[in-house]
């Protein structure tokens, strides 16, 4: 496989100028497409090989690092158009796209105004925005999403994840990071009871991290980024993502407002809790690039207490408590 070139500010500026001309749009303050110096560009995040760049004040340029990512990004452009009419939050709009290296896609999108879910807490009204997002995703025709290339994935085994989390919790206990007894509330029978129900697959964002939520200073969720990881699958995965991003109580409240009952809410809660334990244990052994402080914050949010903790009273139906 040919090694992708390392993007520099000069190459990104030339690329942005070309794409802005293709899209017939300006770059906002700080230089436009026709400026002799070109538009202002800067990496959106720290890193030796940044793949996302701010272009002026109104656009963001993303560089696919490999061909697999290029395929996902092309699919994302079409998927966002399919999802947009169904959800109450904004999605980025494509200005132009092309190749920044042979076979590697680059996309220039509008920049959504606001901070991230890591910078601003989601308010009670913002939880209704999240509920609208979950409701809208359920309304997107799954078959239509699949025709765009969105993969259908089977639900994860909560029992297998429970066992993995138990092993990870032991390692965290040795590092004085976590009390493994907290996992005892998820018993083997409970994990079986919380298995995903047949016929419940919907379009799932599958990456509802705080960095992908655009949140205003007043706590409203104004937009959602990062649609290239979307799948057709278990809706509890998005509930789990929200538990890690905004906290378990807010995630369960949003899911309940969206019409999800006790079973998927509890399944999402325990997916998030087990994931948070496993991911932090991986970080402490150097097997992930996500900084441990970020993963500690996600673990804390996932383990925030909620009223809906028990599964013994669940019946055959799926009504909210």
Task: Give a verbal description of the structure.
By secondary structure, the chain is an alpha+beta fold. It has ten helices and ten strands. The strands form three sheets. It has a five-stranded antiparallel β-sheet, sandwiched between helices. Strands 6-8-9 form a three-stranded antiparallel β-sheet, covered by helices on one side. Strand 8 and strand 9 form a beta hairpin. Helix 9 packs antiparallel against helix 10. It is globular, with a radius of gyration of 21 Å. The termini are far apart. The relative contact order is 0.12.
Could you tell me the mean pLDDT?
Answer: 90
Ends apart, CA distance between termini? 53 Å
Number of helical stretches of at least 4 residues: 10
Poorly predicted runs are 25-33, 315-321
Q: Give the strand line-up of the largest sheet.
A: 1-2-3-5-4
Order of helices and strands: HEEEHEEEHHHHEEEEHHHH
Can you give keywords for this protein?
single chain; 10 helices; about 325 residues; five-stranded antiparallel beta sheet; 10 strands; alpha+beta; about 40% helix; globular; three-stranded antiparallel beta sheet
